[in-house]
Design goal:
The complex is a heterodimer of chains A (288) and B (206). Chain A has 288 residues and is mostly helical. Helix content of chain A is 60%, strand content 10%. Chain A contains eleven helices and five strands, in the order H-H-H-H-H-H-E-E-H-H-H-H-E-H-E-E. Chain A has a three-stranded antiparallel β-sheet, with no helix packed on it. Chain A starts with a helix and ends with a strand. Chain B has 206 residues and is an alpha+beta fold. Chain B has one domain (2-205): Nuclear Transport Factor 2, Chain: A (Roll), CATH 3.10.450. Chain B has helices spanning 2-25, 27-44, 46-49, 53-64, 70-78, 87-110, 170-205; strands at 116-119, 130-138, 145-154, 157-165, 168-169. Chain B has a five-stranded antiparallel β-sheet with strand order 1-2-3-4-5. Classes of the chains: A mainly alpha (288), B alpha+beta (206).
Chain lengths: 288, 206
């Protein structure tokens, strides 16, 4: 009975979605942004779509994902994850080839071959145990490697955070992510539904962390997304980034104590995140 | 003669002790032992398996927190405005940020689902006082998530001052979050927002 009611509200929400979206966007036109972020010139629009997505998620996807997470035992979830992961490896492999990373692409092809056979249609990820590391590539990353810039931060209705480039690549990624399809439409839709719910369920923990751990959820997600995306494009080895810091912590045991002796006159401390080369993180103090 | 043998023995003993001491205080060994310890408890503790957050907080307070330096974390997250804060404001900021991070970490523990952790070899010299310990969280069917811990040597102890999840630095992220609060309401505004958030969630947990 409750299921029926839930399905009805769900249908209603989906039917009303375009109207809600238009209204929120109209309201966003009037909103002013207090503290503009350099990578987010469309913050007014983005915040509105973000709020809309949050609403849809709260009404539809989150309840479904929570239900799935509660009902499905761990081996089932792991099998579902591996199955869709295997399908995703096809597109990841193609993109690795497009990015000129033949070695990674070959490894992805081997993964698909191994997991589709030994792994019983991808239900088990045996390739990882055999030493073929799983990658995650998409058309947005390929375009980035080809020299297309990020463009502004752009929240896509239903799909969430993207950069403009990644939003443009989205149709390609949707197509590429479903190269293997069932011919029966009803079953195909059911599989897509399961995939969406499974992927949403995987985010339940992170979701709560962001909800409880941030002062401004929108900004927090944006900044994390932009950082992580950069990291993905560089395959976990982004060029080093510097930022200046004011640190005023007394740390007597090491040489930094001199500059930290007086809070008011504290020297600036340069943290060099040198992940590119030696993967070491150096901190050196300098007097101002 | 006896003196010389004694001296040699003493030297050998000291060298032996020395190597034991360095092994115990190596940053990667520290992170690994803490994580192994915590995960062992998470895997076996029935209260945690049932999602008991207060038990998770206890565990984090006891096992994890002693290895974090919240003062450095807070100062980095606040950024250049830290210098303008009074000692009293700093105390409040550190306390509020600490509460927030403890909750974040405790929640993460209750979400644990059979993931395994892989430690990558540490690339750092013996004299380094600031290192990055790199780990990967593995889960079937999904790409491994990189989690790196930035540690700083303080005397003989190593303290964590930043956690980088899949390339997203916690400190950098909070810096942006905090910056906007400071622009709107100053340091006191930030303190008020943090304390309000903590109070709201403490209320919700009851």
């Amino acid at each position: 009975m409750t299921d029926v009611i839930q399905m009805m509200t769900l249908k209603k929400t989906i039917r009303r979605a375009p109207a809600i979206l238009v209204t929120t966007l109209a309201l966003a036109g009037c909103a002013t942004v207090e503290h503009p972020h350099p990578d987010d010139p469309w913050e007014g629009y983005n915040r509105a779509v973000f709020a809309f997505n949050e609403g849809v998620d709260k009404a539809v996807f989150k309840p479904l994902a929570t239900g799935y997470d509660t009902v499905a035992p761990l081996p089932v979830k792991s099998g579902v994850g591996s199955f869709f992961g295997n399908l995703g490896d096809i597109w990841t492999g193609i993109n690795n080839f497009l990015q000129g990373k033949g070695r990674d692409g070959g490894s992805d092809a081997a993964r698909v071959l191994i997991n589709s056979t030994l792994g019983i249609f991808g239900l088990f990820d045996v390739a990882t145990d055999m030493g073929f590391e799983k990658h995650q590539e998409d058309l947005g990353q390929t375009l980035a490697v080809w020299g297309v810039g990020n463009g502004p931060y752009f929240v896509v209705p239903f799909f969430g955070p993207r950069t403009l480039r990644d939003a443009a690549a989205l149709p390609g990624d949707i197509y590429g992510g479903s190269l293997v399809q069932l011919s029966d439409v009803a079953s195909r839709n059911a599989v897509t539904g399961l995939r969406v719910v499974h992927e949403r369920a995987a985010l339940l923990g992170a979701d709560r962390a962001v909800e409880e751990g941030s002062l401004d959820k929108y900004g927090y997600i944006r900044d994390f997304y932009l950082q992580q995306r950069r990291y993905e494009i560089y395959d976990g080895r982004p060029p080093r980034e510097r930022f200046d810091d004011a640190r005023a912590t007394p740390m007597q045991p090491i040489g930094l104590s001199a500059i930290e002796a007086d809070d008011a006159a504290a020297g600036s401390l340069r943290i060099e995140l040198a992940r590119a080369g030696g993967d070491t993180l150096k901190a050196q103090g300098q007097e101002q | 003669m006896i003196k010389r043998i004694f001296g040699a023995l003493l030297a050998a003993a000291l060298i032996g002790l020395g190597s034991v001491a360095t092994a115990a205080s190596a940053p990667d060994a520290l992170v690994k032992s803490v994580m192994d310890d915590v995960l062992e408890i998470v895997r076996t503790d029935p209260a945690l398996k049932a999602g008991d957050t207060s038990r998770a907080v206890e565990l984090v307070e006891e096992k994890v927190l002693p290895h974090f330096d919240f003062r450095i974390m807070t100062s980095l997250a606040v950024g250049r405005d830290w210098r303008q804060a009074t000692p009293a404001q700093k105390e409040k900021l550190v306390a509020a940020f600490r509460t927030m991070l403890v909750r974040l970490y405790s929640n993460a523990l209750t979400q644990y689902r059979d993931q395994t952790i892989d430690f990558k070899p540490l690339r750092a010299g013996a004299a380094d006082t600031d290192v990055l310990v790199r780990t990967q969280v593995l889960q079937p069917g999904a790409k491994a998530v990189d989690i790196d811990y930035a540690l700083e040597k303080q005397g003989e102890a190593w303290k964590v001052y930043d956690v980088i999840v899949a390339g997203g630095s916690l400190v950098t992220n909070y810096r942006n979050d905090f910056r906007n609060q400071i622009l709107s309401g100053g340091i006191d505004g930030l303190i008020a927002s943090l304390e309000a958030k903590n109070a709201e969630l403490a209320g919700a947990a009851k």
